[in-house]
Design brief:
The protein is of the alpha/beta class. It is built from 14 helices and 14 strands. Strand 3 (35-37) and strand 4 (40-42) form a beta hairpin. The longest helix is centred in the last third of the chain and has 19 residues, at 307-325. Bound molecules: ligand FO1.
Length: 326
Amino acid sequence: MVLAGGIGGARFLRGLKSAVPDADVTVIGNTGDDIHLFGLKVCPDLDTVMYTLGGGINEEQGWGRAEESFAVKDELAAYGVGPEWFGLGDRDFATHIVRTQMLSAGYPLSAVTEALCARWQPGVTLLPMTDDRVETHVLIDTADLDESQRGEGGESRKAVHFQEYWVRLRASVDAHAVVPVGAESAKPAPGVLDAIADADVILFPPSNPVVSVGTILAVPGMREAIAEAGVPVVGLSPIVGDAPVHGMADKVLAAVGVESTAAAVAQHYGSGLLDGWLVDTVDAGSTQAVEDAGIRCRAVPLMMTGTDATAAMAREALALAEEVSA
Ligand code: FO1
């Protein structure tokens, strides 16, 4: 069982599948990044996992479809319809159209995701964390924005959708708070709690601890189910050498008062949740601090430079899981 965000989670899963090809892997995907655009429901993290494992991902970007074109986006822009800052490609649009059509017909997101995966055959069971609407918003200070970013309105604190913070603003301003709107009343999607209870091992890939794994854990019942599953829970640090390996995790970590270090992220999850934590070899000096927090810690190479390197990381995570359960 793996709790996954977007690019980091998807690439880790590819390594895990390569390390243990015969294992039954269930993935709980973050849906806090979801956004409604042009009347369509877009689920970036679910799609990133589905396309990456299904062979349809744009490898360089880590998101969106390979061999993509942008005719629809350009045509929308010609009508003055945006946002222009979010790159939805023509092939990707088809996924959002099918998803939205099924949702409108009354299917829950979990059933829609299963239907989409019937095409992509990701080789894992991909479950959204919830069928309910959850949208991560980021509180920013408009005084921090430059003229071109500011737009209208005189307010100083403003909540923007996570995608606007991440993609339009490139996390260039401080995040004062990160709020998974709707999470408090969301219910885990069908199958999620059973999958956690039935898991042999629970892994937190090197995904963003605040807006990816943190959002999944914000769904009521999720954290308790993981803690009560009675199986090893092992995470891999998304921070290597005090900087995020991918993305801009440091910005949102600061919003929750967590330093951008491998040890601080482990302590943020805490020993109530984590049994084991892998840090990169460059952070070997921080293993003692993690162990002092009651979490078994090992330093191993954590750069996902290719499937072999990532498979080796997955093997290390499984070995640590075995070690903590012994
Ligand atoms: N990331 C970008 O940096 N720019 C984009 O225009 C963009 C579009 C996009 C469209 C579909 C999709 O599934 C993902 C997309 N992403 C884009 C990635 C996404 O914003 C984030 O990386 C994730 O939500 C964080 O996990």
